[in-house]
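Form 12-C: Joint structure prediction
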Amino acid sequence: MTVLNTRVSLVALACALISPSLWAEDSSLTNPAISAVLNGYYQTGERPLAESPDGFGLGETELALSANIDDIFYGKVTAVVEMHDGDTELNLEEAFIQTMAMPAGFSIRGGRFLSDIGYLNNQHLHTDSFTDRPIAYRAFLGGHYFDDGVRLNYVAPTDLYWTMGVEAFKGESLRAADEHGEREFKNVGVYTLYSKVGGDIGDNSSWQAGLSYLRNENGQVTPHEEHETEDEHEAVEGHDHSHAASYTGQNTYGADFVYKWAPSGNYKYQNLSVSGEYFRVSDFTPTDLHPEDAPSKDYHQGWYLSSVYQFTPSWSAGVRYGEADTQELHDDHFHEQKLKESEVSLAWHSSHFSTVRFQYTHQNGTNFDGIEDDNIFTIQYIMSLGAHGAHQF
Amino acid sequence: MRINSNLAKVAAVALSITYTGLAHAELNVFACEPEYAALTKELAPTANIYSATTAFQDPHQVQARPSLIAKMRQADLVVCAGADLEVGWLPMLQMKSANANVRSTDQGLFFAADQIETLDKLTSVDRSMGDVHAQGNPHLHFDPTRLLKVATALSAKLTQVDPASAVDYQKALADFTTRWQAAVPRWEEQAKGLQGKKVIAYHSSFKYLFNWIGIEQVADLEPKPGLAPTSGHLASLLARAEQGDILAVVVASYQDERGAKWLGEKANLPVVILPMSVGGNDSSQDLFGLYDSVISLLNGVK
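Section 2 - Result
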């Protein structure tokens, strides 16, 4: 019901705002910036824990509205239409307000928004250079972690960029699986801390590095119940199509970096970016675990390294390698599983606003969600219309 | 009670010291492009000025990178071309830098294009036209009359954000105006021979310059604004060039020369690389040098 209402009012809102008279005026200050992202693909297989099934499909189709609300608040709404098993779902990925007039480099964001942990997480999927997020994101953050909560951020008045922040979220999508619906979860489940530093190296290069910590009060695995049958287990786990994370724990530590280079710092013709992140999720085993059932490692971990080179204004190529190393609970004991993903992509940009991408993924897994050696080819388009979105570094 | 009121006094004194300290601190100016860093330098010679881009960087495609967020965080005034030139990165910097002083043009934010009538304003914009700006062409710093108007408005803005130095700003503006008004007729005299000449150029980067001097840009190396030259488009330009009335192929310091060089070779036309802004070549160290250099480079192919 809520979903339907949100849909109706959003469409009404969008219709009311997309009037020709508004287009001609300045959208940068008072009038809302309206944009839509169209995203479709065909692929020969499915990446584990990814949101895009094989065959023809639509990725996230996005409709975003943003504007300064008044002289001290900025607001943004991003609605995302997704297809899952034949159903069309409308989700709100962002619906937040942010202060623009707090003194001393502070700002507060509240509502539903993308957490600022890691490098990729606060960016929208359509700005990525690959079809799906790296396996570490898919396993530990449900692809990208957005939630209802609040953030306090501070930017230091230094020439070296230095920002830090603290967030608190409801944490529903990062809850450990609760097969019987009996667990009492904390309703403020997730707290995060992050800090990023960055700067330039001469005219040609820029960099940023960050550290983040995520405390998940509901991340520990629910204790197994002895009388549960295998069927029940399967039925509830089923095919999870929410943005829920598959592997959770009480503490997640992350480190990230990005380096970008362009000749003379001119990004139009050629540029190179290299980025990487590492996540370690710990304290996930149930409290009543028998010592003999303890997993071989008491943490999950995942990382990726990716590089994209745009060699003309119209063409870019990327490579990415990522791994996830997790402990999956089977009945009352843990199975170690591992996935290695090697990917190459080639993208054609007819303009700044349209991309057609070919991607090849080679998966090498040890029992990872049942997937073993697999080759996946994807062809995808991502196009944006409407207001020119400002992209993050 | 006693302690509290003493504390309050101490706090008040501390605050006022901090405030006076800030009032006399150097004015930090963040310029989006080097031409506005140079203009601010003329009008506020003692200010601490940082340019977000160089003459070798396309201001349409700038990364909202960490160093720029850090600089904007500390800025008292942000000076940009406007007319949506920086739409892909300035809003992100404003959001990330959390600097309340530079968030709106009522305060420490200044757009040059807001001060003048831009050329090529469009009543309706469609992306099939390429990456065009509804608010008109933002590369206005090559029009001496418009730039002087911008200087006058920028001086008023400097006074608004830093009223303590009002007298200095007025003096600097008067000095700049005198030198500028003396230079303009000299440039116009030098450029007389260029009047009515035809060029093929890249983008509408030099629209204001050509408009002022009386040069006609008969074709664009870009098939559509923002799109790189294609071989098909270059072939059509070659056909146009073979009519024999083109003076030169003109590109800006941040633009790819390959298409221009190909066309220049095939059509036997000189290719001129003009500095897009201050710092774009050795002789363009300030706005006067930039104008001198651009006119002499164009005269060089006459």
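Section 3 - Comments
Chain A touches chain B through 57 residues (CB under 8 Å). Chain A has four helices and 17 strands.
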